[in-house]
Amino acid sequence: MSPASETSTSSTPPRTNAPADGVSKGNQCHELKIKDEELGTVDLLLHTSHDERVTHYGLQGRATNVVPVTSEALAKKYGNLQDGMVAKIFWGEATRPSEPEILDKVMEIAKVHNTIKDHIPDLLWHHTFTNPTCAIREALSVPDPATGSRVLYILIFRKLEPITKLHGKELFDVWYQCILCHITLWKEGVYHRDVSPGNLMWYRRNGKLIGVLIDYDLSSLANIVGPQGNERTGTVPFMALDLLTAQAQRGEVKHLYRHDLESFMWVFAWIFLRYRQGVLLPRRLRPFDEWATLGAIACRQEKLTFLDTMTAYAPSDMDQVTWDFIVDCFVVLKKEADNRFYLRLKRPSASSGGSQQPNIESDPDAFLSKFTSLEGWVELSKPQ
């Protein structure tokens, strides 16, 4: 897979040829034509009015858009793409390794680990545009134009299904597959650091659901030292409590494996309490909407309140095994947090950057085993 070489792009009015599933004629589409060293001209028809479009806006950040896309050039190269394709368009930080670079590393690791093979996104094609924001800022005479510079990327992937469509043991199974992929990558030096429902996907192969961990543009690599950007990585409602403190927001807390595993627990609870049979509940019946609009510190307080009052959130039609499992997971997290608090009180020097971390902090398998040994985990792991 060779990166594209940009020589021309264009945007045209909507075309009238066959649209992607779910897009009726007349809805807005945008066409790009980009020169590629291997394929010649790559045509991309972006279905920007599609119901499945995902957009993330903010005053700073990546401005990520994920939209269905069709392409005659890519269809010709890859043959029958039965599930379709999506385009991920975002402004990545220029100082970070690019997502295609990280995915190259991930694919190398996947060759020797079955927990990763088939559980990572299939990158079909990508392109890096040649005008970073620092060039724009420099042209406008903005002071220190290179600070926080971003580069526009477009990545084309095979389409996957969101984990929120699942429930019961299927939800648990796909979620667990993503955990196994994540921990293997972590031990191999690829730190994901943005576990959220939108980054846990799946597809069906031979009747079996295959979990896929996606979105690596906020990931870091163990063998690369350097600036990682001026904002904290993660999606606020799912970030570990330790990462939602003022200290963490100043970049003074190291992002550890246990933080990502805690995010997996928040994701599972989020889906269980906000969806029924794979369908989002009406606003009046679902909790946590405000979490998505709060800053880090305020969201942390809301999550602590939830933990203190969990019984009030128990659905009347809940699956008892799954609810008990969620409760037990948060009990484990609370016990671990209390233990760290106790150690900090007894050994104040342990909080300093130069001190040695407790063994559990540096042993992902040991931390994960505290959850996999739970009765609920064992029960949900049993075949249907």
From TrEMBL:
UniProt superkingdom: Eukaryota
Q: Where is the Protein kinase domain?
A: 1-360
- GO molecular function: any one? ATP binding
Q: Where is this region: Disordered?
A: 1-27
The record's annotation in InterPro entries points to:
Kinase-like_dom_sf, Pkinase_fungal, Prot_kinase_dom
Q: Which Pfam families match?
A: Pkinase_fungal (PF17667)
Q: Where is the composition biased (Low complexity)?
A: 1-20
Record protein name field: Protein kinase domain-containing protein
| Source organism | Suillus placidus
